[in-house]
Amino acid sequence: MRELSLHILDIVQNSISADATLISIYINEDIEGDRLTIKIGDNGRGIPEDKLMHITDPFYTTRKTREVGLGLALFAQAARRCEGDLQVDSGVGEGTVVTAFFSYSHIDRPPMGDIKGTLISLIALNPGIDFMYKHIYGGKKFFLDTREIKRELQGIEINQNEVLGWLRGYISEALEDLYGGEG
Ligand SMILES: Nc1ncnc2c1ncn2[C@@H]1O[C@H](COP(=O)(O)OP(=O)(O)O)[C@@H](O)[C@H]1O
Ligand SMILES: [Mg+2]
Predict the structure, then answer these.
(1) What pLDDT, on the 0 to 100 scale, is given for residue 169?
(2) Residue among 6, 14, 50, 90 to mutate when testing ligand 1 (max atoms within 8 A of CB)
(3) Domains defined for the chain, CATH in brackets
(4) How far, in Å, CA of 120 to CA of 20, rounded?
(5) In which order are the strands placed within the sheet that holds 140-145?
(6) Per residue in 77-127, pLDDT tens?
(7) Residue whose CA is closest, atom 11 of ligand 1?
(8) Which residue's CA is the nearest one to ligand 1's atom 18?
């Protein structure tokens, strides 16, 4: 995968498959510390311990056919190529947190990609799931919580076209502010 936003979409898809009702996405672009951290947390069903041990190993299989996919392994590989790593913390019934970090300036570090499009698609396609989004860039912060937006909407569906249009503009502006016009 060429872009981090695609990895994020893929990892969030795991949370959705695990019946999460609240998913948090945290991105910290720490320029000074030369470190990029991406953390995705959910309140889904969690991962059993025996599976967790091998979850980022692309060669692990318990049978002839893989019973585990490659999403986490590929994301882990991308991080490890950039002096980083990926960690999965999970417990059955407790939810899951996936944390990846990268050396920010590493030549192999994939670009962020279309974060706004990723967020809008996730919200549009999963109106019953709540998303918390926190993005830090060089110390500046952008925070979004669909629970707050839904409260403001007073019963209007969050995935109505008008609402999504507004949300798209809102996120665009916030990200432009965050990147100070350079992103
Ligand atoms: N957030 C999560 N909650 C519960 N189970 C998860 C989560 N993320 C991953 N898993 C488990 O780990 C497996 C491997 O995930 P992944 O590497 O993305 O491959 P795939 O999704 O193709 O199976 C999933 O099939 C699922 O059983
Ligand atoms: Mg997956």
Answers:
(1) 97
(2) 14
(3) 4-179 (3.30.565)
(4) 18
(5) 85-91, 95-103, 35-42, 22-30, 130-137, 140-145
(6) 999 999 999 999 999 999 999 999 999 999 999 999 999 999 999 999 999
(7) 47
(8) 71
Identify which of 24, 30, 57 has the alpha carbon closest to the alpha carbon of residue 132. 24
Question: Ligand 1 within 6 A of 53 CB?
Answer: no
- Per-residue confidence (pLDDT) for residue 67, from 0 to 100: 55
Ligand nearest to the CA of residue 15, numbered in listed order = 1
Contact between 103 and 35 under an 8 Å Cβ cutoff? The reply is yes
Q: Are 10 and 98 in contact (CB under 8 A)?
A: no
Kindly tell me the sign of the dihedral angle through the C-alpha atoms of 119, 9, 140, 173. negative
Predicted TM-score (pTM) of this structure:
0.94
Closest CA to 71 of 45, 40, 112, 49: 40
